[in-house]
Amino acid sequence: MATLLTLILITALLTALFFLQREFQKPYLYSPNIKTLLYHLVADETYGDYTYLFVREADFERQLQTIRDMGFETYFADEPERARGKPGVVITFDDGYIDNYTTVFPLLKKYNMKATIFLITDMIGAEGHLTAEQIVEMSESGLVHFGSHTVSHLRADLATEYELQQEYLHAKEIIEELTDEPVLALAYPNGMYTETAEKLAAAVGYRYAYTTDPPFDHYYDNTRLPRSYVVRDMPHEQFEALLALSN
Hints:
Elements: H1 2-24, E1 34-39, E2 41-42, E3 54-55, H2 57-69, E4 73-75, E5 88-95, H3 99-111, E6 115-119, H4 132-140, E7 144-148, H5 161-179, E8 185-187, H6 195-203, E9 208-210, E10 228-229, H7 236-242
Parallel strand pairs: 1-5, 1-10, 2-3, 4-5, 5-6, 6-7, 8-9
């Protein structure tokens, strides 16, 4: 009984915080001119079942060159409002794989571009994933921000309210302690989100939460921002189409 009452009180408090934040926090007005790209890995060799997630290194570099040649500024996932509706690109990576340091990071430095990596905090230091030391180095470069992909990659549609609240809150705390930077952006695992997930994300302090839904509309709430997948062997013309301006 006590546990149930505690859960009810926590839920009520989080809901109140959500509406307070929505009332007093200046909203980001989504612009279709902000192109948010979703990557996972950049590697020529693949492993596992999801080979389409491995973008070839030469293709990724060509994509960065195209972003530069088209005159786009790059922004972090926690600062899309800085574009003020002007054309811009947000480069994001999910999960925090090791190639984000060994392959992606050198190319970001070469082209002086920003990217955001959404970390599964339970996987920090695991085989094939970023180490704490690498995360700190990348954060200190000024070219990489780190966002939350939850603690254990828990899907919103398969979790209780309390589980989601803990996953969102603790992942945020872990990354902030590691980087000494505020964590304001979340990527929903598998792109799955619910109304409850949106409320909880805002309540624990995320200003922006990203899905895997491609953009199809001219307005999105901060709690369900769209991203466009970039996958292995994507024709370059298709990549250029992702960057086509809407205005």
